[in-house]
Design goal:
alpha/beta; Alkaline Phosphatase, subunit A; Arylsulfatase, C-terminal domain; 2 domains; ten-stranded mixed sheet; four-stranded antiparallel sheet; 12 helices; 16 strands; about 30% helix; disordered N terminus
């Protein structure tokens, strides 16, 4: 009788182990990872936010089949730094990317530290095949090319923005690559990246190893160029929209449709249930294109909330409970740590990002302690002159200098989420504390060069 009781207790114990907890030891259960990054997509430019003029059923599907994050922050207000944070797991200015990496030296404000080990290298060490399809934007030359930074396979765009989604050029330079080979494909960039991803998923379905596919679209970054049939569809449905808004809506709806075809390929290959799907954007929406950042102040390039908050959702049908909404504060760099936690891959202890794993596997909010969340952007031109804008969120408080030379501002986001009331004069002690923390961050970031030696 005692033996039977012991067996039953043991069976109950092992059956209660959450599937997440066996990921590190059960190699067959390791998930495939599809990481979808869009470019300049506004927080409310998804229909799951209740936005009436746009339809994004496939992005909505990721949210409804998993967990959506309402207070997720991009690590920066522009492209390169957020991408550096995602792939390095730390603040972008800690790895040499405080600003945008560009073709011309006089307009370049970042250089990825070649010694930094990126996410695909960690995952390769953990038994994954790794691929980037789409936009890289973290270096144009060796030693910072995708195939040198842990990606087995690169099929996409090496540079920053495209001057045209059909001809695929920047400053008349062709940055389209298949690994390190220059290619000149025909078609809209969103269609190309999606088709290449579908082909990759088909090939990987025949492979015993799990895969990490980092699918980084250029869209909806300007120039806003939806295929004609998509624009016509939006104009028929929403005739009241201004021309600019109609173009952006069509651009995003085309993007959403192609995201859907990639997800469908996972289903067609029998991979969907055990694939971790992450969707996020690199910064807030671009207001001149009539992006929708909801009620939040400002947009891309700005340290106000509209420039930093981004649509983000994560699904994993086998593991994550459907239809959950998180109000916890997270950063782009936290996705790095979340992925490594899920896959059981060891990481360096020095990184400052946090894992979202507890929030993914529990229905209750994460109990992570309040932390400092820093934002830096270095830029040229008359507004910056090579200097930085900064922000620090700590609990409910946010300290901000939106342009170099401007005075600091202080907001209490709990009572003023839309940053209408600068209360720095009323709270000198809070300002002094936050400013001291920000100075420490700036000093730490200064240890890493952001120009190529």
């Amino acid at each position: 009788m005692r033996y039977i009781l012991l067996v039953c207790l043991c069976a109950g114990l092992f059956s209660s182990i959450h599937p997440f907890q066996k990921m590190a030891t059960d190699e067959k259960s390791l998930p495939n990872i599809l990481f979808i990054l869009t470019d300049d997509q506004g927080l409310y430019d998804v229909s799951y936010q209740g936005t009436k003029d746009i339809k994004t059923p496939n992005i909505d599907g990721i949210a409804s089949n998993g967990i959506r994050f309402n207070q997720f922050y991009a690590n920066c207000t522009v492209c390169s730094p957020t991408r550096a944070a995602i792939l390095s797991g730390t603040y972008p200015d800690y790895v040499g990317v405080p600003g945008v990496i560009r073709t011309k030296e006089e307009d370049n404000w970042g250089y990825l530290n070649p010694k930094v080990k990126l996410l695909p290298t960690y995952l390769k060490d953990g038994g994954y095949n790794t691929a980037i399809i789409g936009k890289w934007h973290l270096g144009l030359t060796s030693p910072n090319l995708p195939n040198e930074k842990g990606f087995d396979y690169f099929h996409g765009w090496l540079g920053d923005m495209m001057d045209d989604y059909w001809s695929h050029r920047r400053h008349d330079i062709n940055y389209m690559r298949l690994n390190e080979k220059v290619i000149d494909p025909v078609g809209h960039a969103t269609d190309l990246f999606s088709d290449w991803s579908i082909d990759y998923i088909k090939r990987q379905s025949q492979n015993k190893k799990p895969f990490f596919l980092y699918l980084a679209y250029n869209a909806p970054h300007f120039p806003v160029q939806p295929p004609a049939e998509w624009l016509e569809k939006v104009k028929m449905r929403e005739p009241q929209l201004p021309e600019k808004r109609a173009n952006l809506v069509a651009f995003i709806e085309h993007l959403d449709y192609r995201i859907g075809t990639v997800i469908q390929s996972l289903k067609d290959q029998g991979l969907y249930d055990n694939t971790l799907i992450i969707f996020t954007s690199d910064n807030g929406g671009h207001l001149p294109d009539l992006a929708n950042n909801g009620p939040y102040r400002d947009g891309k390039q700005s340290m106000y909330e509209g420039g930093l908050r981004v649509p983000t959702c994560i699904a994993w049908p086998e593991m994550i409970e459907k239809g959950r909404i998180s109000e916890s504060n997270w950063l782009s760099m936290d996705l790095f740590h979340t992925i490594l936690d899920i896959t059981g891959v060891q990481q360096d202890a020095s990184f400052v990002g946090k894992s979202m794993l507890n929030e993914l596997k529990n229905s209750s909010p994460d109990t992570m302690e309040i932390r400092e969340m820093y934002f830096t952007r270095r830029e040229g031109g008359a507004n910056y002159n090579g200097d930085c804008s900064y922000a620090l969120r700590f609990g409910d408080w946010k300290l901000i200098r939106n342009y170099p030379g401007l005075p600091m501002e202080l907001y209490n986001l709990k009572v003023d989420p839309f940053e209408k009331m600068n209360v720095i004069k009323e709270n000198p002690k809070i300002f002094a504390d936050l400013n001291k923390r920000l100075m420490r961050h700036i000093q730490q970031a200064g240890k890493t060069p952001w120009q190529k030696p």
